[in-house]
Amino acid sequence: MQIESLLLTTVRVQTLQGGWYLTNASGFLFQRGSRLFLITCRHVVCDPPSEHHPDSLAIELHVGGEHLSQSVRLAIPLFENGLSLWRTCADAAGDVDVAAIEIPPQLLPRDVVYRAFSPEHLPPRLESIEAGQSILVVGYPLGFQDTLHHLPVVRQAAIASSFGLRFQGQGYFLTDARTHRGTSGAPVVLRRPDDRGGGAGLPWLLLGVHSARLDVGTRDLVLDEALGLNCAWYSDVLMALTADRPA
Question: I need a surface site. Which of 13, 78, 112, 235 has the fewest CB within 10 A?
């Protein structure tokens, strides 16, 4: 059976410290030239307010081509010689909640099976994307997955703010979706209107990176339901995070 290429872009992320499991999150693969990156949220790899300081990540990738029930677990260190291996950035409004970690080719098995987004999957015209459009969030809410095939689940969402206009001056837009812990780092995607998939066979536009649920401090916890809104950081930040760095 043919597995949708979109499901092969996204991996479950486990954070570890000293070999001990800490938390679950989501992440996805992004190819820039010959270099492969794992993309997730900054707060997944480092979150001082919650005293979350993992030293490595673990992800699962498929191997063996036809037998998607087979997978391999990769350990990805976050530090080397005391220096962080993950990349993040800031803009005029402050820290951006997105991180990129390069995956060295030698870590990948020879028969690994995956799909990766690339710069050609970033939306070329922001004005063509409108509030209210139906989009998808692909991830691992509460660490949940197809435990036989190690595949993520897909949640329906809608763009809930003016796309291209930084919400409250921050580098993200809003989505209307039911999300849970563990979804941080999930790709937020829109089906290409022309159905072109590029070289990776992915007929999707990568709009953003799901970060967190958004709420208001004035909400009455008894009388008012949660807003059901979420922050998704614009995907163009990946061009800065994956650019070649001076030697």
Answer: 112
Give pLDDT tens digits for 195-224. 665 556 889 999 999 998 776 655 555 555
**51 burial via Cβ count (<10 Å: 0-12, 13-18, 19+):** exposed
CB–CB of 118/37 below 8 Å?
no
pTM of the model: 0.90
Ordered domains of the chain (ranges, CATH): 5-241 (2.40.10.120)
Q: Give the integer Cα–Cα distance in Å for 99 and 65.
A: 29
Whole-angstrom CA distances from 183 to 24, 177, 228 are 8, 11, 14
Partners of 36 in the β-ladder: 31
Distance CA 59, CA 13 (A): 5
- For residue 119, the tally of other CB atoms under 10 A from its CB is 16
Q: pLDDT tens digits, residue range 34-92?
A: 999 999 999 999 988 888 899 999 998 888 766 666 788 889 999 988 888 898 988 87
